[in-house]
Amino acid sequence: MEVTISKYSFVFQPDEVGMALVDDLKQRLRQALAERFPDKTKGWYHSCNSRAHVTICAFEGDEKKLAAATLALQEALAYERSQYVYFDHFSSFPTGAYYIAPTVHARSYLKDRARKVVQTLAAFDLIEVSDEPHISIGRRLETGQLELAKAVLRAVDLSFMCKGVHVRRYNPDMKQYEGLDFIGFGNQSKENSGQLSFKF
């Protein structure tokens, strides 16, 4: 029996309102790039079609490996708590990435949750581990493209309730990730986890 190997990505993801907001920002940048650089491919740039997400990590494997990883995360995230996170400004990386950055408090919360995920999945040969929470607008932008992005996209106000980890599978035909599963934070209290309940 042939085993299919796929690439799976684990991310935090905004709600539909947040997703639509980021889609709009990406399209605004694409339109601006198409007008400024008409010789380019209609304003296309890396990540322009990718849905909003905060990358945690990824791995390659079959469905059996994914099932084991999912079970491990369900157990590990039982005591993690949901929380509103806020992204309130743009920033960039030296690699040419332009992104939406979280507040200091949200960054700390997301880094802690992401660290828990990475530690839990450490035995699964992880790739693309990200230790800086952000929502990409564009990647590998050339100098002129990045300067235009900074001029066009100046202010942002995005927030959502971070309730757990989304699992995505890469579709090689579409060259995009597709939503596959969701592993919610259990919001359980450790204080009560060891107590026994008796009925009289």
From TrEMBL:
Gene3D superfamilies: Cyclic phosphodiesterase (3.90.1140.10)
Top-level lineage group: Bacteria
Record InterPro entries: Cyclic_Pdiesterase
Pfam families, per database record: 2_5_RNA_ligase2
GO MF annotations, alphabetized: ligase activity
Keywords, ordered alphabetically: Ligase
This protein's name: 2'-5' RNA ligase family protein
Lineage, opening ranks: Bacteria, Pseudomonadati, Bacteroidota, Sphingobacteriia, Sphingobacteriales
